[in-house]
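Quick one, probably user error.
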């Protein structure tokens, strides 16, 4: 069984993927929306900021996930739902909640010859990370996850930015990922210092990296709150 790459003393340790008919990127509609939820494991950068006050929350007025274990809350976009509930929604210990598109069939994205599409956002918690180490730990974790989910691919850092979530220190990294089979993905990972004893993270993946769901993933991460 494939083992996960070593991770820093915070966020998640990814499990071995579910078997596939051929070696392929470990994402896709089912791989992202189901396998990554059942077997796995930002803020919009530039002009985006990690707050959810007033009109600055891109998902203002939408239902939210309130994740008491991480101390985070984040919005659920239209057409998405929680994917960590029910008999197919069990998460490994590294994760505490997840959401994804609700309009994807179970077999969609499974065609070996077709392009893979999909998106997911997962939340989890870790041991405390000192503020000076947030940048290096976030960058390391993002690269490690990209290497795990796309073992035949490569990634390029697009953004690495210190920011805040409700005034708490955070760091967000965005990667453009090539899956090694002609496809692309967008991966965004953010670590948030929730309090003195807890660091939380949000991980978002959209495939292909040019899809409309890339912005949706960014909107979910940008809606995060520690309240």
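Nope, works fine. Designed sequence:
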């Amino acid at each position: 069984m494939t083992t996960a790459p070593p991770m820093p003393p915070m966020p998640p340790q990814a499990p071995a993927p579910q078997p596939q008919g051929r070696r392929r990127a470990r994402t896709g509609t089912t791989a992202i929306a189901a396998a990554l939820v059942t077997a796995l494991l930002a803020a919009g950068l530039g002009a985006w900021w990690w707050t959810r006050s007033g009109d600055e929350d891109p998902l203002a007025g939408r239902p939210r996930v309130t994740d008491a274990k991480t101390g985070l809350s984040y919005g659920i976009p239209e057409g998405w739902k929680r994917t960590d509930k029910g008999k197919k929604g069990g998460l490994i210990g590294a994760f505490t909640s997840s959401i994804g598109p609700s309009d994807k069939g179970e077999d969609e994205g499974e065609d070996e010859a077709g392009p893979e599409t999909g998106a997911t956002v997962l939340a989890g918690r870790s041991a405390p990370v000192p503020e000076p180490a947030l940048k290096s730990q976030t960058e390391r974790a993002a690269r490690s996850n990209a290497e795990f989910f796309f073992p035949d691919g490569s990634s390029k850092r697009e953004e690495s930015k210190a920011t805040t979530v409700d005034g708490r220190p955070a760091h967000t990294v965005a990667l453009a990922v090539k899956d090694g089979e002609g496809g692309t993905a967008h991966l965004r990972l953010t670590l948030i210092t929730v309090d003195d004893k807890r660091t939380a993270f949000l991980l978002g993946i959209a495939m292909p990296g040019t899809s409309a769901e890339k912005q949706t993933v960014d909107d979910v991460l940008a809606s995060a709150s520690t309240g």
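The radius of gyration is 16 Å.
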